[in-house]
Structures are given as structure tokens and as C-alpha cells.
Write a structure and sequence with these properties.
Elements lengths: L2 H7 L3 H18 L6 E5 L5 H7 L5 E6 L2 H10 L4 E4 L12 E7 L8 H11 E10 L4 H7 L15 H8 L4 E9 L7 H9 L9 E8 L11 H17 L6 H5 L10
Parallel strand pairs: 1-2, 1-4, 2-3, 4-5
Antiparallel strand pairs: 5-7, 6-7
């Protein structure tokens, strides 16, 4: 499929309703704030990227491996930055972006757990991952037997398998929400969408979001070393010269003790 053809689908009545419904859920779960930098992993034609860039005071970068789709994205968006990059090895330092999204890109990456780990790594505050939901009517219509059309070859996720991967990563406040319960886009589908809460887990579009937390296991205890070294030197000087002016200061130093095993 050509990028222009893919992007034009969002201009159809059904495509526009589905796209805006998904985008609304993504923004709700991502919680972007003015002044932040956002990354869109697997941005494709930039349809969702452009909507992120439309938020006040937000800087957005989109990455994709497909140069043709990136060129199309650049031609439609003068406000965002677009780079060619592999989701399995993002060319950014840890915590480079305040918030990170990815919209169904992980569904087409064989080693999606590694890509998810990269998303968490470059995220500083919060992430939101849009996925195709295996527990949905859309999967029954488009996903079975290897998928049809644009869904061919896609992996349809469950919230549970995403959570299992996130359990090993430094994240918190993880939650799953869904939308597009009836993918037809009909009047009945829109009514159902308004009536059902996003906590209902059977929508075709699944969003798993969470906060990036400090990785305590990787933090070094080196900053404590100079303090302890200074205490030891002070005590050594006191022992050599009991009349030293540092005696009173040294006596105020708290005594450390080990806790019971």
C-alpha cells in the first residue's frame, strides 16, 4: 500500500471516525503537557504525529524505518521532525523524550518486546502504546487466519502479554484501555462507543500506558563514598590529635549500625 493511499483512508467517514476515536484515547492516556518533547515510534505517514504536534507547546519527533513513508510524512507536516530509525535500536539517549507513543507499530515488529523496552528506555515521564486487540470484534473480522488487507501478518496483542513484558521494566501506574468496540463506524457503532467506558476491554484498539520510573537497581552508591571517606579522615585526625578543633564536629557524626538480618 502506498502512503498516500493509507493516509487517505483517514479522510473517509469511517476512517475519520476510527482515527479520531483512537487519537482521543491516546491523548487521554498519554497526558501531554505544554513544553514537552514527544516521540512517535513507527510514525508511518504521520497521521497521529500531526495530531500530537497540534497540541499547544508540544515538540514532536517521528521515527520510522520506511523512507517512502517518512518523505510523505514530512510533506504533510512542517512542524514535526522526522527521522529514519529502527524501533529495535532507537538512536537516542536514555530519557530523551518526556513522553513516547507508538500506534500499532509493535504489531508488525517480530521482536516487539525489545521495541517496547526501547520505548521505555528513551521515555522520561510517560508512554502510551496503541495496539490491535486480540480480544475484539475487529480481530474476528480482520485478524484471524493471518489477517486480511492491511492487517495481514499483524500480531494482535492482549493486555496481559504487554503487562508481562512491562513487569520486567522500570515502569509504574500501568493501565489498559480500549476503544472502537464496533468497527463499522455506523450510527449504532458510534452510539455504543459513547455508552461503553474505555475500561471495557474488548475494543479493537488497545492502549497500554504507564509512567517511567527511576531504575533503582542501576543507580550507583558512589555519591555516598566521599562523605564516608571524609568522616573516616576526620576521625583519624581526632585520634592523632585529641585537642584538635575538629573533635566537637567529629563527635556529632552519627554512628552507623547494621540492621538485624
Amino acid at each position: 500500500m502506498k502512503p498516500a493511499e493509507y493516509d487517505a483512508w483517514y479522510d473517509t467517514p469511517r476512517g475519520s471516525w476510527i482515527g479520531e476515536t483512537e487519537n482521543r484515547l491516546l491523548l487521554c492516556r498519554l497526558e501531554p503537557q505544554a513544553g514537552e518533547q514527544l516521540l512517535d515510534v513507527g510514525c508511518g505517514t504521520g497521521w497521529f504525529t500531526r495530531r500530537l504536534a497540534g497540541q499547544p507547546g508540544i515538540g514532536v519527533t517521528g521515527i520510522d524505518i520506511n523512507t517512502e513513508w517518512l518523505e510523505f510524512a514530512r510533506s504533510r507536516d512542517r512542524h514535526s521532525s522526522y527521522l529514519r530509525a529502527d524501533a529495535l535500536c532507537l538512536p537516542f539517549a536514555d530519557g530523551s523524550f518526556d513522553r513516547v507513543i507508538s500506534v500499532t507499530a509493535l504489531c508488525f515488529i517480530a521482536d516487539w518486546p525489545r521495541a517496547l523496552g526501547e520505548i521505555v528506555r528513551v521515555c522520561r515521564r510517560r508512554f502510551a502504546i496503541g495496539l490491535l486487540n486480540r480480544r475484539s470484534l475487529l480481530w474476528r473480522q480482520k485478524g484471524r487466519d493471518g489477517g486480511v488487507g492491511a492487517y495481514r501478518g499483524a500480531h494482535w496483542h492482549t493486555a496481559q502479554e504487554i503487562r508481562r513484558v512491562l513487569d520486567a521494566l522500570p515502569v509504574g501506574r500501568v493501565s489498559a484501555r480500549s476503544a472502537v468496540f464496533l468497527p463499522s463506524g455506523s450510527g449504532a457503532a458510534r452510539l455504543v462507543e459513547r455508552c461503553l467506558p474505555t475500561a471495557f476491554p474488548f475494543g479493537g484498539f488497545l492502549v497500554v500506558a504507564g509512567d517511567r520510573q527511576r531504575d533503582v537497581s542501576r543507580e550507583s552508591s558512589e555519591p555516598v563514598a566521599p562523605v564516608l571517606a571524609g568522616m573516616i579522615r576526620s576521625r583519624h585526625r581526632v585520634a592523632q590529635n585529641p585537642a584538635s578543633p575538629v573533635t566537637s564536629a567529629a563527635s556529632a557524626i552519627p554512628r552507623f549500625r547494621t540492621f538485624p538480618a
